[in-house]
Amino acid sequence: MLNKLACSITHLLDARREGHSLPAGLYTREDVFQADLEVFFFSHWIYVGLECDVPEPGDATVIDISNTSLILLRDDDNEIRVVRNVCRHRGSRILDPGSTVVSKLVCPYHQWTYELNGELSYAPHMGKDFDKSCKSLKAVDFRSIGGLIYVCLSDNPPEDIADLENAMLDRLAPYDIRNAKVAHQIDVIEKGNWKLTMENNRECYHCSANHPELCVSFIDLDFGYDPESLSPADRQQAEEHFAMYNARTAAWEADGFPSATIEHTRNVETNFRSQRLIIAGAGESQTEDATAASSKLLGHMTRKDLGDMHLWGHNSWNHFMGDHAVTSMVIPLSPDKTLVRTKWLVHKDAVEGVDYDLEKLTHVWTETTEQDAELVARSYAGILDSAYEPGPYSRFSEGALDEFATWYIERMRAHGY
């Protein structure tokens, strides 16, 4: 039988109307926030980083999710590891937040020392009968999907992560993200609930009015429109665009580049969507003039006309282009604060100032992320108001939001709420 807390959340879930945004409490309440962490960040697969975050043996970086701390590192055998940032002695944190280089993992408290594969190698003054073999750092279940690191903190991780792996293996291969490098990173704290951050990213209804830099290369029609609201000339233009889109997709696929839309967003555990999007204007990259930011293309790429390989997850969004990639990770901090960590990736041998200009590389998504942060804050402030009531999604432009809200309700119920 559900406890009182769960029943209270269940009432909110029951109150959600199909085709509408969520009841206010699902965005604002602390008990819901804690349930969200347990269900969506501790029981599902989440994106946490990249193999190229730790390019050399001894490279390590810490990812904190609420009270849980993980270490992503590369060991002496050049293998990726993800371990809990908790000493097996008395629980001290081993590494501080951020990135570092280590030869071993040494707990600062009592100097318990672990090899980079997590094995305990030194525990002073514990006696001859102390068995070090059972005190390795706790390993975390992870998958590297084309160089993107997904972890699951559950003892029973969803098996349909295989669907994501199968879908993205060929799509990501030409970009060779494992051998890219992080050219730049920014952390933005949005003043709103993590679900608002994800909802905002899953629609472009707001793009033309709020993202002038992005709209140079983004085509908002690709995210839906109401044909009856268009003039005959604009409707004809939209029809011509989608005819061209279908032809371009067919040509890409004929050339061996998977491009068609994959929707894995309802009646599933691992939520994702992928599609190769056309880039507007010059058609090369998401920059202020839609031309490539880096003359050295990513991985094995030889073409700049392959659009934007787009990948959504329930805590991430990613754009892979011929010259660079942009990845964003979402980590909830509280009901009203969300971390958005964005990274720009280039070829591992690309040199700043020679092969790419950092300002051109980062300008569009720096501006877009700041604009989105303001929109999320405005949305959250309105939801806190007693006048808020869930509003209808546009069936033309916000269908992905309805899918996300429906999936959210499904997964909460599957976990007993």
From TrEMBL:
Keyword Oxidoreductase: yes
Location of the Rieske domain: 46-151
Keyword Oxidoreductase: yes
Cofactor: Fe cation
Cross-referenced PROSITE patterns: RIESKE
Sequence intervals crossing the membrane: none
Molecular function via GO: 2 iron, 2 sulfur cluster binding; iron ion binding; oxidoreductase activity
Sorted UniProt keywords: 2Fe-2S, Iron, Iron-sulfur, Metal-binding, Oxidoreductase
Designated name of the protein: Rieske 2Fe-2S family protein
Organism of this sequence: Mycoplana dimorpha
Higher taxonomy: Bacteria, Pseudomonadati, Pseudomonadota, Alphaproteobacteria, Hyphomicrobiales
